Hints:
This protein has 205 residues and is of the alpha/beta class.
Amino acid sequence: MGKKNLFITFEGGESSGKTTHSRLLKKYLEEKGYEVLLTREPDGAVRDILLNPDLNIVPLSELFLFEAARAQHVKKIVFPALRAGKVVICDRFTDSTVAYQGYGRKLDLQLIDRLNSVASFGLIPVLTIYLDISISEVFLNKSKKLNKKICCDRIERESLQFHERVREGYRSQAEKYPERIKIVKTQETFEKTEALIREIIDLVL
């Protein structure tokens, strides 16, 4: 099979399975002979700040922190990997900013589009898998965490209305960019969801 460098992103609401399915896809592509880099946004110290439930970060500051982290991430991690001919799988990218900061926080969408373009240096994924999970499932998973006394992060603690707006934002993006963003409804098992993702990936490859 011929190799080609691809930039693939996973998007979705809280507890949608992005991290699990990113890892499963990495393994699947490696078995096919691809060299794969799995990464995520944000990461490191910025991630710790943005998800800290004890911090009261205003929406605009939150937006700038995400974009600053993205610029560093793309320039120092994603671009070098793509130039080396690797497949890059990223857990969250610019669509998350539109959904969470645009729709969720109600910040100006045109501003976010401009900042996304600048911070990503114009990089656009070849394919985005949007894992669509119902809001009731999001809050069921949140309740399970609280019952187990697992601390929810700052984003997970947001209201039902916030998460509904985020989902609306993702679905709006999918309607706007149907060739790039593919909606995968999460199934009752990871295996069934993974099978749907593989069907899409095989078509792209």
